[in-house]
Write a structure and sequence with these properties.
Length: 309
């Protein structure tokens, strides 16, 4: 089988969705030894890594084991720091702010490509969500189609007759019980119908379709809001806190539909040592069953964020 044919997608008629096949990913680096981290800087006399510099601040490069690649999408790796033992929570505020500018630059460049309909910035953190490299990093996928979650959010806009995140933010602020943190740029809350026990959304106060529409101040405040949340997560159970972080923005199709920049966090932990598994109802019926109330999780999370602050 040629290398080219190892990437492909098939449309699942029964579910009405695309499934992507990237079978070379089976061979990707899996939890390498501490001194063979491919995301470290290449130090003099040390092993050659993915990053051919003796030190760096933030590095972006094409994923060596891509799920998408030109001319049908993109897959990039964003390394947050050359400090192997850092995390998004422990980055200096200036570095977290710089990361927002890197995200914005990648969004602009990938959005301009005709083969990319949706730019998705995300981070998988912790072995519980399948992380294969511990070094602090995130990823960016450029999808050659608008994926289902983005389509659901566009459908919510149509259902509510306007921007859904704007409407939901207004409701959350009026209610207030699930708001866990806020600054002048963003509001952080556990959503009314959270699927995960400690799910949280970091939402721009103003209607900003993407990172490109944010002021420099808003980018700084977004970074601050994200860091406040993940620092609270770290304190919540006094253990390293796994999550999936998903940055939702406007799709980048030729039609340029609207969107409202927000960042969703899906942590799999229900308690300090219990994971939520997607089982019968979630997988077979598509309905989440939660055994915690969003209001109670929000109270605990708010307390942890205040303590971290
Ligand atoms: Zn490393
Ligand atoms: Zn909006
Ligand atoms: Zn969203």
């Amino acid at each position: 089988m040629s290398e080219r044919s190892k990437i492909g997608r098939r449309f699942s008629e029964l579910r009405g969705e695309e499934v992507v096949y990237a079978i070379h990913r089976q061979e990707r680096t899996f939890l390498p030894a501490r001194d063979h981290c491919p995301l470290d800087a290449t130090r003099p006399g040390g092993p050659q890594t993915e990053i051919p510099f003796p030190s760096f601040e933030i590095a972006v490069f094409d994923n060596l084991f891509p799920s998408f690649r030109a001319p049908e999408g993109a897959a990039e790796v964003v390394v947050y720091t050359d400090d192997h033992d850092a995390s998004f929570a422990t980055l200096a505020p200036e570095r977290a702010e710089a990361l927002m500018w890197v995200w914005r630059h990648r969004y602009a460049e990938l959005a301009a490509r005709p083969d990319i309909d949706y730019v998705f910035i995300f981070e998988n953190r912790g072995v519980e969500v399948g992380v294969t490299l511990h070094h602090p990093h995130g990823q960016i996928y450029g999808y050659p189609f608008v994926p289902p979650v983005a389509q659901l959010e566009l459908a919510a806009d149509r259902r509510l007759g306007g921007c859904a995140p704007c409407a939901l933010l207004e409701r959350e602020l009026a209610d207030g019980e699930r708001v866990v943190h806020q600054n002048d740029g963003v509001v952080v809350y556990v959503p009314y119908a959270a699927r995960w026990a400690y799910e949280a959304h970091v939402v721009m106060r103003e209607h900003r379709p993407s990172l490109l529409d944010c002021t420099p101040d808003e980018l700084r405040l977004l970074a601050a809001g994200l860091q406040a949340l993940v620092r609270g997560y770290e304190l919540l159970f006094e253990r390293s806190f796994p999550y999936v972080m998903a940055v939702h923005q406007a799709p980048t199709t030729a039609a340029r539909p609207d969107g409202h920049l927000h960042v969703e966090f899906y942590p799999p932990l229900r308690t300090a040592d219990k994971l939520k598994y997607l089982a019968g109802s979630e997988q077979g019926a598509g309905t989440f069953i939660s055994d915690t109330l969003p209001e109670e999780s929000a109270a605990a999370l708010r307390e942890a964020i205040d303590r971290a602050g």
